[in-house]
Amino acid sequence: MRLIHWLAVIPFIGMLIGPVLHNRVHPLLLGMPFPLGWISIWVVLTALIMALVYVLDPRNREE
Amino acid sequence: MSALILIALAALIALGLGLAARRGYDMGLEEWTVAGRSFGWIFVFLLLAGEIYTTFTFLGASGFSYGLGAPAYYIIAYGSLAYVIAYFLLPPVWSYAREHHLVSQPDFLVHKYDSPALGVLVVVVDIVALVPYLVLQLTGLGIIVAAASYGAVSEDAAIWIGAAIVTVYIMVSGIRGSAWTAVVKDVLILAVVVFLGLYLPIHLYGGIGAMFEKIAVAKPGFLVFPAKGTSVSWFVSTVLLTALGFFMWPHGFAAAFSARDARVFRRNAIMLPIYQLILLFVFFVGFAAVLSVPGLKGAATNLALFKLATAQFPPLVVGIIGAAGVFTALVPGSLIAMTAATLISRNLYGAARRDADPQQIVTLAKWLVPVVMLVAVYFTVTGSSTIVALLLVGYSFVTQLFPAVVASLCRVNPVTRAGAFAGILVGVVVAAVLTFTHASLGGMLPFLPQTLKDLNVGIVALAANVVALFAVSAVTR
Questions:
Q1: Hey, is the C-beta of A33 within 8 angstroms of any chain B C-beta?
Q2: What is the pLDDT of residue B106?
Q3: Full set of structural domains in chain B with CATH
């Protein structure tokens, strides 16, 4: 594991912590109940974080 | 009538594309099973995404949110995290598979642990998980076609026709048949699901936020995790467990072998999470049905989407929804049938007859496709309750392969052949016992605080697996 790969831990923490800390309907996020809105936002953030990992990962510049 | 024509058209297109996919390729073993390891990121994307867009998307996810509410949220979370794991897991698996000409998931463990017997165990675990999954697709197909044709085609007739189409194009084209039909499937389902998920809440409630506000008032607690049972700690533990198990499904694992290079997976780790969001729209349909077609119970919740659609739309639109539904059953069904046939031929027959050449293996595998299909059709039309029970264990069964697979990727494998065997066996037995006795952590250990009681009981099976894995490895080193 290179240092940069540890970034991949962030989606796990981010995705799961929302419903743990705030399991309520309100405030609605993007029109959705809070836990669902939180998860949806973190799906997008997961993709962005993995894009960053992809760009910084030297293995993807080989071949 | 227009609905029926559209559904028939979908079936014909699937068959035509599935057969055309063969053109220009000689279907030897590596070509038939893993397309000669030539797929770029789009085909691999569609095959890996196939797991999300099965009939489950249509019936299960909408029925889940309709029937249970918040616990359904976990489906979006675990898929995205599974792709993060895939970024690290699949490239080394793929490289090893290419180097050793592997074509199935048991192949991988057989080679890593130098043990055809381990392969036999893995085949048994895989088949027990795969056949009910195939039955689920066929059952879903029957429900979709019967609902979308307004009863003109019976469930049984739809199941027989669907199974026949899949059998023919998989025998002829192998994984290329699945990949080509997957293109149509995903385009269709994307269009249908996004349309339904936006149109229904806006048309029926005046918007997505307005819909959720109304549900929150009418059914307090429905949109958040309950305090007990499928609570927040259930959510966290289930997401983690299912994310680990996601790529242990043998058809997904082997589909990864079809990639052209390892970068394909790393790039897909960016795109695939976003694709999960399409499930949001399926949830919106399920939630829209909560107040619009109330009162569905048990298995009937799976009809929530179609009940709402037939009430709201003309037959033409219902037909398009049905056509998309047909593809969601046929594509995963084809991949599962091909995988099951390959496992039996390569890792059971192949283990018994070491001198069998690849040509014999692939010929046998092709002829096992109709056999697998007939078994699945039998269970589907007889509505066997055993199969329903097995479906529950399927996911926890394949998850038991995770520790042995990950250990084998270490530079020096800490696990021995006997350790891998013991870990998988113990994990599977514990998982089966827990499922069939409806055990929960709270039931076994009533003194625990509620947060720990609600943890997914699958953790127990996985823990037993890891303990056996290392204990037996320590003894047999």
A1: yes
A2: 92
A3: 2-385 (1.20.1730.10), 400-477 (no CATH)
